[in-house]
Amino acid sequence: MVLKKARVLVVDDDTDVLFAVRMLLKPEVQEVVTEKNPELLLSLLSKQRFDVIFLDMNYKSTLGTGNEGLYWLGRIREKDPTATVIMITAHGEISTAVRSLKAGATDFIVKPWHNAQLLETLAAAVETKEAGRASGVPVAPRRAASFAEFALLGESEAMQEVFHKVEKVAPTEANILLLGENGTGKELVAKALHQKSFRAAEPFVTADLAAMSEGIFESELFGHKKGAFTDAREDRIGRFAAASGGTLFLDEIGNISLAQQAKLLTALQNRQIIPVGSNAPVPIDIRLISATNAPLYALAAQQQFRKDLIYRLNTVEITLPPLRARGDDVLLLARHFAGIYAARNRKTTPGFEPATLQKMQQHSWPGNVRELQHTVERAVILAEGDTLRPQDFHFSAMETVAPRTAGPQPADGPLQLSEIEKSTILRVIERHNGNITKAAKELGITRTALYRRLEKHDL
Question: What count of Cα atoms within 13 Å lies in the side-chain half-sphere of residue 348?
């Protein structure tokens, strides 16, 4: 069954979630039915057949235990043992979501999700169900891989070195520090390290530290008790507790303040956390993977990053190479992404004209694999024929950098570069509706550095 013929049921008591999923899936599937009240779920199943059911983990309960989701999963399985159910969960409920897989769920998605990943998860579930129907034998559910997971490819010497390190350190308990430019696949490598570790069956929890302000840092990582602050209406576990037994991935570690560094270091040294509003320490059992594109050692030399924290983070260090240093991996990845996006958009997998391949190899790819992925997707969608031509590839002005030339620069060179920098900053800030944290992340610099550039350009 192709995705276009699928009938999907979404059960969640959050009307915003229902609206968002309906808008996302409406053009992709034959029918989307949404329901707030899980009590009506069995009645709906009696009246209509659904290929996939999205089921929230929590409803009336404010405890966030996920037991309601497990209960309704059981009722669905009683009525139809072959039902394909994808659980909707939050970061703090990931361990419960893993339990739901053992109870018969096909997969789970984590709020807030990436639209592409939700569609991939749905497509994988539909394919599994259709394969079972075609063979007459139920097919074991498989976890859907995101586009990012598909992109962990490479034949270059630089990537082979990365793969070798991953294979060697994944089965250990060593803390890993991933370094590299934006878009090189640091989160992807973190997932690979987890999947190849002895903790693979346990949660993999991510925390984007660049998006955490000073005010929510402790609550997000360590959790809080009810009444600890104005909006703390119930107990909440943090990312450390959610990752218990599994892996915690701290992204953008170079963006946190010295005060945040001190709190994180204390937790790692003592192997315990203290939730906000509590005096009782909670032991932690995690494997830590951190990532940054910031020059940590330069920051440490400037006393902007604690050296003792670096020692805690990097038992083993893995540096991901930029795409421009990966040779023919550019073409390998381009063909791979072309196949993925052609299938997703119901097109024939395109070929590449020789001039197209040459154009791609000559580009410096400052946005790395992420830029390549978006560029190929756009080309596949807009191409007129079954072969991608040079004119089908338009490199983002945001990612375009001035070509490097040998010899002395023109007298007005610095002025031109300054204007390019100013224009790029304005465009990225505009793209993120004034959100400085997100803009800094996309630009590959810290918030402090972005503020300095704003002052420099009198913006």
Answer: 9
| 68 compared with 8, residue with greater pLDDT | 8
Question: CA-CA distance, 302 to 269, in Å (whole number)?
Answer: 23
Which H helix or E strand runs over 318? Answer: strand 316-319
How far apart are the C-alpha atoms of 456 and 459, rounded to whole Å? 8
Confidence band, pLDDT 50/70/90 cuts, at residue 261: very high
Residue 177 has pLDDT above 90, yes or no: yes
**Nearest in space to 290 (alpha carbons), one of 266, 316, 272, 258:** 316
Q: Are 143 and 107 in contact (CB under 8 A)?
A: yes
**What type of residue is 142?**
R
Q: How confident is the model at residue 140 (pLDDT cuts 50, 70, 90)?
A: very low
3-state secondary structure of 291: strand
Residues whose CB falls within 8 Å of the CB of residue 456, separated by 6 or more in sequence, listed in order: none
Residue with more model confidence, 68 or 289: 289
Alpha-carbon gap, residue 422 to 398, rounded angstroms: 11
- pLDDT tens-place string over residues 379-435: 999 888 889 999 988 876 555 443 333 333 333 434 455 667 777 777 777 677 667
In Å, how far are 7, 72, 126, 136, 345 from 132, measured between CA atoms?
17, 23, 10, 6, 24
The amino acid that residue 337 corresponds to is F
The residue whose two tokens read 């190929």 is 376
Distance CA 100, CA 104 (A): 6
Q: How far apart, in whole angstroms, are the C-alpha atoms of residue 108 and residue 144? A: 10
Whole-angstrom Cα distance, residue 91 to residue 379? 35
Determine the Cα–Cα distance for residues 210 and 300; give it in Å rounded to an integer.
18
Amino acid of residue 130:
E
Q: Is the pLDDT of residue 372 over 90?
A: yes
**Residue 380: C-alpha distances to residues 145, 198, 349 (Å):** 21, 39, 9
Q: Determine the Cα–Cα distance for residues 201 and 179; give it in Å rounded to an integer.
A: 26
User: Is residue 60 packed enough to be buried (19+ CB in 10 Å), middle (13-18) or exposed (0-12)?
Assistant: exposed
- Which residues sit opposite 90 in a β-bridge? 111
Rg over CA atoms, the chain: 24
Which residues lie below 8 Å from residue 78, measured CB to CB, with a gap of 6+? none
Instruction: Please report, for residues 113, 181, 342, the alpha-carbon distance to residue 337 in angstroms, rounded to integers and kept in the order given.
Output: 21, 20, 8
Closest CA to 367 of 330, 312, 338: 330
Residue 392 backbone zone (phi > 0: left; psi -120 to 50: alpha; other: beta):
alpha
pLDDT score recorded for residue 268 = 93
Give the C-alpha separation, 450 to 456, whole Å.
10
* CB-based burial label for 81 (10 Å; 0-12, 13-18, 19+): exposed
